[in-house]
Specification:
alpha/beta; 352 residues; 12 helices; Purple Acid Phosphatase, chain A, domain 2; 5-stranded mixed sheet
Length: 352
């Protein structure tokens, strides 16, 4: 039986971490913690807390939601215990909260929705209810009040502003996205950000799947017609914000590797004069994919880790990949986690 998840421990979100300095401050982001996230995420939590990052941003796919439990969850069951598919589905998100989120407390955590978080019996309403304490964090609720009539409902898309940076969480986890409702909301957010006197210097937008025509287009919004069409429009909107003088960065996961410069492609160089900086970081525990041939220099797979963003005083952000070693996973392991299972996840959980 999993321990009862303590919402107050995470919703407190003490701001002792990552306080802004005159020069710079940091945050951390990654996604896709299914399969082996119960082993990987505690190590990520330990690292980002030690770095005093301001927050951690998880871009979705908390559990695989297949017929069989994720291998990390299964490895920690009592001897002889097995979960039926129904038992697994009922406990999967509690497992994520207890074993992957609790280690971050009191660090603020922001969540995005992934495609595996939509697999039946999981629903959008169930997601919004289960993770309400994350989707309505004080920072998000305060921003919602400021947005007034343009505020998003409590759910998978939202934004918050921190030290002049607008952090935007988008939802493209299902094939009906981007919906007109989400597009209307995003357009209002960007119109505010580029308006004179907004106080916004930088925009960081994150979604589970990369926008179309990236180096990771084999596994992104290119996969469905509405996704390609609305994703292209949203990219042009962010490009417009960049052209208006804002520093803009786009982050995705979904593909289980690290890949920088993902919009530096022939398509976007043909359609815009300066591509928007972007990256993929899907290395929080999921089965790791082979890199596409189009991946840029510096891309890596068969790793676990996250990206740390350093926000400078002028609003520019540098991103650095932070890789985990097997020893990092062993140091932070749950008492019932077998070392052999951790080794198996570290070495063999991937295409290579």
């Amino acid at each position: 039986m999993l321990a009862v998840f303590c919402v107050s421990a995470l919703s407190a979100g003490l701001r002792a971490f990552g306080q802004a300095t005159e020069s710079s401050w940091t945050f951390a982001v990654s996604g896709d913690s299914r399969n082996c996230g119960d082993f990987v995420m505690p190590a990520i939590a330990s690292k980002v807390k030690a770095e005093k990052d301001a927050f951690y941003w998880h871009l979705g796919d908390f559990r695989a939601m297949s017929k069989e439990p994720d291998q990390d969850l299964a490895a920690m069951l009592s001897a002889g215990q097995r979960l039926t598919p129904d038992e697994y589905h009922r406990s999967a998100w509690d497992d994520f909260l207890n074993r992957q989120m609790v280690p971050f407390a009191p660090l603020p955590v922001f969540l995005g929705r992934g495609n595996h978080d939509t697999i039946p019996p999981m629903t959008r309403q169930g997601y919004s209810e289960k993770f309400a304490s994350f989707l309505d964090r004080p920072e998000i609720a305060e921003q919602r009040n400021k947005d007034g009539a343009n505020a998003a409902p409590v759910g998978p898309w939202y934004h918050w502003v921190e030290n002049g940076v607008d952090f935007i969480t988008l939802d493209n986890a299902t094939k009906d996205e981007f919906t007109d409702e989400q597009l209307h909301w995003l357009r209002a957010v960007l119109d505010h950000d580029v308006a004179p006197g907004s106080g916004i210097t930088t925009i960081v937008a994150a979604a589970h799947e990369a926008l179309p025509h990236s180096t990771g287009s084999e596994h992104a919004m290119d996969d469905w017609e509405l996704g390609e069409r609305t994703g292209e429009m949203v990219y042009h909107w962010f490009y417009g914000a960049q052209a208006a003088g804002k520093h803009v960065y786009l982050i995705a996961s979904h593909s289980h590797y690290y890949s920088p410069d993902i919009y530096d492609t022939a398509y976007w160089k043909q359609h815009t004069s300066n591509v928007v900086p972007g990256l993929i970081i899907g290395s929080a525990g999921a089965h790791r994919y082979a890199l596409p041939k189009s991946a840029k220099k510096g891309a890596k797979t068969m790793i676990y880790g996250y990206v740390q963003g350093t926000v400078h005083g002028d609003g520019t952000i540098d991103f650095a990949l932070k890789e985990l070693r097997e020893q990092d996973l062993l140091k932070t392991k749950w008492p019932q986690a077998p070392e052999a299972a951790i080794h198996e996840c570290y070495v063999h959980n991937g295409d290579q």
